[in-house]
Amino acid sequence: MENHNIKKLVIPSDSCMQDLGESIAKIVHETDVILLSGPLGAGKTTFAKGFGKGLGIKEPIVSPTFTIARELKGTFSNGKAANLIHVDAYRLGGKDYAPGQDTVSRLLDELESLGLDEALEEPGDGTVVLMEWGEQMAGVLANVRLEVHIDRPINKEKSNEFTSEGNRVVTLVPVGGDWCDRLKILD
C-alpha cells in the first residue's frame, strides 16, 4: 500500500541539510521519536546538527557512534525544556548472542543493558529521541515516529560507488500521530 503522506525533498548542500534538521526540530513535541537512516556519509549527523540548533542546544552535535547515546539539553519551540537523546545504533546488534535470537531482540537487549530501552519505547516528559541507524527497530520502538531516509548519489563512472557530490534525496515518512499535519510546514 502506498503512503501518500511521504515527502521527498532534494537537498543540494550540507547547509540545506542542516536547515532541514532545524525545521524539523521546530515542529517536534516531547516524546517524539525521529529515526534517521541512510548509508555512511549520507548526512545523518549533518541533519542532527541542524536538529540540535533548532532545539537551541549549545553543545556541539557529533555522532555518538562510540558512546552509543548522548543526552543534550535544549528548548522546544514552545519554550519548554527539551532533553534530546541522540542515539547511534550503528554498533548495536552484534553477532555475540544466543543462536536463533532475532536482530530486533538483540538490539532491544543491548538498549536495555545501556538503560535506553525505556527512554526509546516511552520517552518521558520533555524528551525527544533522534536515532541514527534505527530503522531495524522502527516498529518495535515507536508506533508514532518520523522516519527520515537520506539517499546519497551514486557515481556510475566509478563502479556505482557512493559520492559526496550532488544532491541528497530525503524521504520523510510520517508514521502515526499528527506527523502528517506537522510536516505541512515544509510545503
Automatic annotation (TrEMBL):
Its main location: cytoplasm. Keywords: ATP-binding, Cytoplasm, Magnesium, Metal-binding, Nucleotide-binding, tRNA processing. It is found in: Cytoplasm. Pfam families: TsaE (PF02367). The keyword ATP-binding applies. InterPro entries: P-loop_NTPase, T6A_TsaE. It comes from the Bacteria. Belongs to the TsaE family. Required for the formation of a threonylcarbamoyl group on adenosine at position 37 (t(6)A37) in tRNAs that read codons beginning with adenine. Is involved in the transfer of the threonylcarbamoyl moiety of threonylcarbamoyl-AMP (TC-AMP) to the N6 group of A37, together with TsaD and TsaB. TsaE seems to play an indirect role in the t(6)A biosynthesis pathway, possibly in regulating the core enzymatic function of TsaD. This is tRNA threonylcarbamoyladenosine biosynthesis protein TsaE. The lineage of its organism: Bacteria, Bacillati, Actinomycetota, Actinomycetes, Bifidobacteriales.
